[in-house]
From TrEMBL:
Protein's UniProt name: Cobyrinic acid ac-diamide synthase
Entry's transmembrane regions: none
InterPro entries: CobQ/CobB/MinD/ParA_Nub-bd_dom, CooC, P-loop_NTPase, ParA/MinD_ATPase
SUPFAM superfamilies reported in the protein's UniProt record: P-loop containing nucleoside triphosphate hydrolases (SSF52540)
Keywords on record: ATP-binding, Nucleotide-binding
Source organism of this protein record: Methanohalobium evestigatum (strain ATCC BAA-1072 / DSM 3721 / NBRC 107634 / OCM 161 / Z-7303)
């Protein structure tokens, strides 16, 4: 069974950093892992320290522009599926699929409808799939990957941040998405605000999966534009991410 994990949250909370550190844990046991960067800003490759050749956005553009030129008896879903596999960037320890930003003004509903079935089949090729989603709530309505085992909402720990987690939990229920578990992870936590964060989560009946502390190593790497995928074991953030991963039985 493929374990599907999605990481979401407001912009600036560090969801891409959390995704990259979870990836670091996942690949250690020789798991077949697919990372999906579903954020149009495309920050995950930088956090993982890799370069990409193709994006799924390019393939969507191809289908949108060329679909009327295909022979009448052609299977458009099969054509798009081959393009999806072409968009997968193969790294040494994992595969990476970058959604990319749509370039044209056209409606992508047709292509997205085809993609839902393809993505459902694609993920079964992996032991684990981790998705760095775009900030906000709108993308949940598209349901390109409708079944998610663990939805992790990254928050800065503020009351408003926790309320975002509550809204996402409510939205997941309203859209009848197949999400088994919804968790909150507080990021950039200090000793002075840890207790209040725990209380805020408790007040909103949110499952606080972990509290990732402020990490000087990450701050230094961010300043230099260095990746987070190869953070050292002594990183305090990595230690907490390992605890989170263990709690999830990853």
């Amino acid at each position: 069974m493929t374990r599907i994990i999605a990481v979401t949250g407001k912009g600036g909370t560090g969801k891409t950093a959390i995704t990259a550190m979870l990836m670091r844990h996942l690949v250690k046991d020789d798991n077949l892992v697919l990372a999906v960067d579903a954020d149009p800003d495309t920050n995950l490759p930088d956090a993982l320290g890799c370069e990409i050749d193709h994006t799924l956005g390019e393939m969507r553009e191809f289908m949108l522009n060329e679909r009327d030129n295909f022979p009448p008896d052609s299977n458009k879903e099969s054509v798009l599926e081959s393009k999806v596999y072409e968009a997968i960037n193969e790294m040494d320890d994992y595969d990476l699929l970058v959604m990319g930003r749509p370039e044209g003004p056209g409606c992508y509903c047709y292509v997205n409808n085809l993609l839902r079935g393809i993505m459902t089949r694609l993920v079964t090729n992996y032991d684990a799939v981790i998705i760095d989603t775009e900030a906000g709530l709108e993308h949940f309505s598209r349901k390109l990957i409708p079944e998610i085992d663990d939805l992790i909402v990254v928050t800065d720990g503020s009351k408003r941040g926790m309320q975002t987690g509550e809204r996402i939990r409510q939205l997941v229920g309203e859209l009848e998405t197949k999400v088994k578990n919804v968790y909150v992870v507080a990021n950039k936590v200090t000793e002075s605000n840890r207790e209040l964060i725990e209380q805020n989560a408790k007040d909103l009946d949110l499952r606080l999966l972990g509290a990732v502390p402020v990490d000087k190593i990450i701050e230094e790497r961010d300043l230099k534009g260095l990746p987070l995928f190869d953070l050292p074991d002594e990183s305090v953030a990595i230690k907490e991410i390992n605890n989170i991963a263990n709690d999830l039985n990853l």
